[in-house]
Amino acid sequence: MISDSDLIAMVRAYNPNTNEALIRDAYAYGAKMHEGQTRHSGEPYFTHPVEVAALLTERWLDDATIVTALLHDTIEDTGSTFSEVERRFGSEIAELVDGVTKLTNLELNSSETKQAENFRKLFMAMSKDLRVILVKLADRLHNMRTIKHMRPEKQVQKARETMDIYAPLAGRMGMHWMREELEDLAFRVLNPDARASIIRRFITLQKETGDVVPKITEDIRTELANARIEGKVLGRAKKPYSIWRKMEEKKQSFSRLSDIYGFRVITNSEDDCYRALGVLHRRWRSVPGRFKDYISQPKTNGYRSIHTTVSGRDGKRVEIQIRTRQMHDVAEAGVAAHWAYRDGERVENPFAVDPSTWVSSMTERFEQADDHDDFLEHVKLEMYSDQVFCFTPKGEVVKLPRGATPLDYAYAIHTRIGHSCVGAKVDGLRVPLWTRLRNGQSVEIITAEGQKPQPTWIDIAVTGRARSAIRKSLREEHRDRYIKLGRELTRVAFEHVGKKASDKALDTAAKELSLTDASQLLEYVGSTELSAREVVTALYPELADTPDMEPADAQRPVVGLPEGAEVKRAACCQAVPGERIVGIKYKGEGVFVHAIACDALVEFEDEPERWLDIRWHTGRHAATNAVSLALTIGNSFGVLGRICTLIGEQKANISDMHFIDRKPDYFQLLVDVDVRDAEHLHSVMTAIEADSDVAALERHRDLSRKP
């Protein structure tokens, strides 16, 4: 564990004037409060707060934030109290610790309605002091780094919460290094097969072409040196999750994905950024549509950089970001740059955004959401979306998420403009309202008195603000009709379970669903935003009609086959239900099902006529899909028997077992396990991997077993 002296040395490296006594006192107090507590790994619990504090020193944060990290679990998990922390460390630190405690108690992975309500609380905490979120993000990062010690079901829960909430939030705050690591750590838990496949392909690519990063880095340095531009060049391969997301978005295989390498050029001045851009574009051909200038149009979190993609060495596409040192500091620290210290002084970075300004820009549009669903939609759109910049006829800039339409632009100007919109002109030309706007376009909205939002606008609008305003207008117009229809639908649903939809029952259900009253509940049911079954479930979960999933047809497990075609699972990849698949036709043998990432598919790239677009049949599949698992286990008494028992407890059958290697201290073996689907397989592998005598476990795929 990092000692108090080592931690102080970390802080002193960027802040020689740090309050050493305060940090040492907090360290001692935290250690005393957590004494006797252990983590899932068996380590003393206090190692966690210390590691969180150490993470924050990497961002040069102030003493109050470091102390908060050391104490962030004391109020929640020990006998400490708010008043005691306030007495010993002051009101500022006590408020920060209390804020982190309240965030920790939010169940952000719960139902949509509850999640939206807690999002509101999260943003309220942010509006008071953003350092609360910085500590919470560092806390989550360390927990994700050590997630393997948690129970399997807890790992999945925390990973999903991280992917849905904390990673996008870190990105929105400009802390892209943290977002990437959080995403990749969550990806390791949620889709280990996909991640392992990408890593294997990276290794294969490097064997075939060598490590191209140093070569391209040197090429860029040479071009800058020839132009007498001083700059630092950094290059790296992108994270597995980033690559997987690109593959999913573009529907491309790894072999066809080109821009898997990223490079940064860090210059001394803004002028040098644009000079460097010119040098690179003269040397390599730029890729159309892949240029963004966030220096002239910075993001709301202060991020500034020029992004471009060029066809580099051997025609490989590479992404290049160009920025100054100060811009790079903000890009690394994001909004946290506001509290950064260097040489004992608060860093005066002209590009660092005032946190209060940033939070205001995030929350002002959320306040317009009149219910939890609208608010949740606002938040998720804001955190996940990139931006485009359009101009008003007067030359003012309007920021919108990528994919926004003139309708979104109209509502961004004013709700009244959006409601009365009848058309739009983009760069002087009349365009349909569903047109996707692009960077730099000038937009003019045409309005008319008496115009009202149309139901079809919901499918056109992209931003939460626009969709919320449209829904609200439509609800008000049709409110009475919706309530009447909702009352009839709930009456039928309640009678179906032998109950009566009384006013009291509806009021109680509305409260359970976090709605204002029974009228709002009936309105939502009538407008199909809430189902009558959900209302019944809120009051009588044990009576709700939730039939089990229908069993899938064992004779026709996949959909999309030609009439009468025989189907088999390819032995090379052993795809199971729940995984994306493709069919390959073999003359005289029928159709073989391959996993979409199977390496064997490479040999069929030039034979598109043999490919079939297929998918697994919906429903519950029988546990008849054999998957080979490669295990390395300790050669101890009872280990193999225990592994077999673990597999049986997961209701999976062992259909074959083969020993590959026997050593005095370990065995290597292949075990064929029959499973229902990918979820069942994950449960089996998680149960096995949790055993202390299992040294290694992976899904075994053998290309030599091709059909």
TrEMBL record:
Cellular component annotations (GO), alphabetically ordered: plasma membrane
Family to which the UniProt record says this protein belongs: Belongs to the relA/spoT family.
Key words, A-Z: Kinase, Transferase
Functional summary from the UniProt entry: In eubacteria ppGpp (guanosine 3'-diphosphate 5'-diphosphate) is a mediator of the stringent response that coordinates a variety of cellular activities in response to changes in nutritional abundance.
Name by which UniProt lists this protein: GTP pyrophosphokinase rsh
Organism this protein belongs to: Litoreibacter meonggei
Top-rank taxon: Bacteria
InterPro entries (UniProt xref): ACT-like_dom_sf, ACT_dom, Beta-grasp_dom_sf, HD/PDEase_dom, HD_domain, NT_sf, RelA/Spo_fam, RelA/SpoT_AH_RIS
CDD domains, per database record: ACT_RelA-SpoT, HDc, NT_Rel-Spo_like, TGS_RSH
Keyword Zinc: no
E.C. number: 2.7.6.5
GO molecular function ontology, one term from the record: guanosine-3',5'-bis(diphosphate) 3'-diphosphatase activity
